[in-house]
Amino acid sequence: MQIYIAPEDQHKTNIRRPSPAHWVPLHTHSCHLACAMHRDCMEVFMDDFSVYVDSFDACLENLSKVLTRCIDTNLVLNFKKCHFMVTKGIVLGYLVSSRGIEVDKSKIDIISSLPNPISVWKKIYQEFQQNTLPLSKLLQKDLEFKFDQPCIEAFQELKN
């Protein structure tokens, strides 16, 4: 099963060979050389793949096909990292389940629990000026750095 990327976004992710079986992310400058060497000396590493369907029996059938294909093409799986028959999982940093795609809370908990800063660098935040005027005032020359309640509220807004 192939998860397709929207055609308007494909140029942002990789350069693809015509056949889906040979889709390999490549740097632009090495595309021609890498395509020529692909079958002779290039190793391709797959980090993750997911097999899913609506029923348990169909899932077993599809999993069998995928594992057979891995064996036929000499792909080696690290079974210590394999997870079978799960109802949810992490894919590219997102939690995927029957409820849909959600942000993995463990990835953002650290951001939510950050203490108030002792300094500010404006270029870190996109759209810094919008709704964050108290933080912008902290950057004015020759003013005392006073992180008061309006600054705390603006900082909390950025974290959320």
UniProtKB/TrEMBL annotation:
Entries under InterPro entries matching the protein: DNA/RNA_pol_sf, Retrovirus_Pol_polyprotein, Rev_trsase/Diguanyl_cyclase
SUPFAM superfamilies: DNA/RNA polymerases
Entry protein name: Retrovirus-related Pol polyprotein from transposon opus
Superkingdom classification of source: Eukaryota
Species, as recorded: Mucuna pruriens
